[in-house]
């Protein structure tokens, strides 16, 4: 019987499960731009432009291939405003009898979809999303019975499963992880590969105008928009990364520099998470660069670990632990998110740079996200819901399945140790070691207390003392507390006093 096949904006893959077995002459593919999905959080303008534009381009390709396509634009006067509403409208206007859809990537929508069959009084088939290396049942089997769910051990299983960077049963180079080689500061005068060029075509121009009209109050700017919208665009970006960026990616993947918004990073996560690239093709391209001598092992291993290790792992954690996972608040954090996360107006130069980059590009690389904006939210004790929503809003590659574990678990340790054995807290010394930010900052990274001290320094120790009861028993924190115990009472009081003054200024701003 003819089917309605719903394809979501992050499912732009020709082989996506919902399309498999479809009959071009009989079935209808539904694409819908709906206000509900664009505003359940106020997504970055560039994120909406990217997803709507890519969906329009993909729909045109499917139509050219002979599919019957039903495309609902946001400004369609009959737009129902929600995915369910558009599915319901399609059933009333198209000669279709059942709905086929690929499982979505966010719990809130997945829970809603479970009730669609009853509400529609139609057959609804929700197919597993098999675009990942590790299926959800496979992840559950791996996690079953383990006291701790550490990514490193999961990653090794994925290496064995895929055969990537393997010599028989042994890892290429004799070790699984070359992370210690991937923490170099940029050398003086280093020039990274050129930044991506702005993208301008008819579809993008049309969607930009729509977004400015409908979502003008959303975060971000559309100036310098660089996200391609087709699979060919995504493949071209992957090829650029492999050719120009990957050779130095490993050495400098944790580095940061003023005005250097992209450095050697891939800029492919938005394409990957939207379905325009697949994890295996990305990893195979990187592996081939190693085999051909174009890129060193530490770079290729570090990159592949992000794709088949970390990305697959956080997806597994999300679906294993939700919905309870989102409610965890192990450190009882409750402060509001500071305004400078939106405005970039702060004397902390590292934070201003990370937020500016985010505002301008719907992008910041993983160390800016983890060790600047994430680390600061941890030290301040920002309420988990507030900082999680910020990350979900501001990045073009953000969907809750990937955002929540990264922020909730890795950045702010709200999960109490599911992902990381200890909070990823750091003082200004780490930022100074990995960047040139501190040279342009109004604060002195070597000062621990007082008006001129780097706020990360006293906030770090304030965080440790504030959470001492919860963290002192953590073996991974033993050295931190030994250092705390060496401080005399006056120094501890000075650190706490500096933190209090900082919080007062936040509350007054």
Automatic annotation (TrEMBL):
InterPro entries assigned: Crypto/Photolyase_FAD-like_sf, PhrB-like, Rossmann-like_a/b/a_fold, UV-DNA_repair_photolyase
Top-level taxon of origin: Bacteria
Gene3D superfamilies: 1.25.40.80, Deoxyribodipyrimidine photolyase-related, DNA Cyclobutane Dipyrimidine Photolyase, subunit A, domain 3, HUPs
Segments for region (Disordered): 166-197
Pfam name, any one: DPRP
Keywords in alphabetical order: Lyase
Gene Ontology terms, MF aspect: lyase activity
Record-linked PANTHER family: SLR1343 PROTEIN (PTHR38657)
Protein name (record): Cryptochrome/photolyase family protein
Lineage, uppermost ranks: Bacteria, Pseudomonadati, Pseudomonadota, Alphaproteobacteria, Parvularculales
């Amino acid at each position: 019987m003819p089917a309605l096949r719903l394809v979501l904006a992050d499912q732009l893959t020709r082989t996506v499960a919902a399309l498999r077995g479809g009959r071009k002459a009989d079935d209808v593919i539904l694409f819908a731009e709906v206000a509900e999905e664009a505003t359940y959080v106020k997504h970055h303008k560039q994120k909406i432009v990217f997803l709507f534009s890519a969906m329009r381009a993909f729909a045109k390709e499917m139509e050219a291939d002979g599919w019957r396509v039903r495309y609902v634009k946001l400004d369609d006067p009959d737009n129902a405003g929600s995915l369910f509403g558009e599915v319901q409208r399609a059933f009333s206007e198209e000669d279709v009898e059942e709905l086929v859809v690929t499982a979505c990537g966010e719990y809130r929508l997945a829970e809603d979809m479970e009730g669609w069959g009853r509400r529609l009084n139609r057959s609804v088939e929700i197919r597993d999303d098999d675009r990942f290396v590790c299926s959800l049942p496979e992840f559950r089997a791996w996690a079953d019975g383990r006291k701790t769910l550490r990514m490193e051990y999961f990653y090794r299983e994925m290496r064995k499963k895929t055969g990537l960077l393997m010599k028989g049963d042994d890892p290429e180079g004799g070790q699984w992880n070359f992370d210690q080689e991937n923490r170099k500061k940029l050398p003086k005068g280093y020039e990274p590969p050129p930044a991506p060029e702005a993208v301008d075509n008819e579809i993008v121009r049309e969607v930009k105008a729509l977004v400015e009209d409908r979502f003008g109050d959303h975060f971000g700017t559309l100036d310098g928009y660089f996200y391609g919208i087709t699979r060919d665009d995504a493949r071209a970006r992957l090829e650029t990364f492999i050719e120009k960026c990957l050779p130095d990616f490993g050495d400098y993947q944790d580095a940061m520099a003023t005005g250097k918004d992209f450095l050697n990073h891939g800029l492919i996560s938005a394409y990957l998470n939207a379905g325009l690239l697949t994890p295996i093709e990305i990893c195979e391209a990187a592996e081939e660069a190693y085999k051909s001598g174009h890129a060193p092992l530490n770079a290729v291993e570090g990159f592949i670990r992000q794709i088949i290790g970390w990305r697959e792992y956080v997806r597994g954690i999300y679906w294993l632990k939700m919905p309870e996972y989102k409610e965890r608040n192990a450190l009882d954090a409750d402060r509001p998110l500071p305004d400078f996360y939106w405005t970039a107006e702060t004397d902390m130069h590292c934070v201003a740079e990370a937020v500016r980059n985010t505002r301008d590009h719907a992008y910041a690389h993983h160390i800016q996200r983890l060790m600047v904006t994430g680390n600061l939210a941890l030290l301040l004790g920002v309420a988990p819901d507030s900082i999680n929503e910020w990350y979900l809003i501001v990045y073009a590659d953000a969907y809750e399945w990937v955002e929540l574990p990264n922020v909730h678990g890795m950045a702010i340790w709200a999960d109490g140790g599911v992902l990381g054995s200890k909070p990823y807290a750091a003082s200004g010394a780490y930022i100074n070691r990995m960047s040139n930010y501190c040279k342009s900052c109004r604060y002195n990274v070597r000062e621990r207390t007082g008006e001129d001290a780097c706020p990360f320094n006293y906030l770090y120790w304030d965080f440790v003392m504030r959470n001492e009861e919860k963290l002192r028993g953590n073996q991974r924190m033993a050295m931190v507390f030994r250092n705390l115990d060496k401080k005399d009472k006056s120094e501890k009081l000075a650190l706490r006093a500096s933190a209090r003054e900082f919080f007062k200024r936040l509350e007054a701003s």
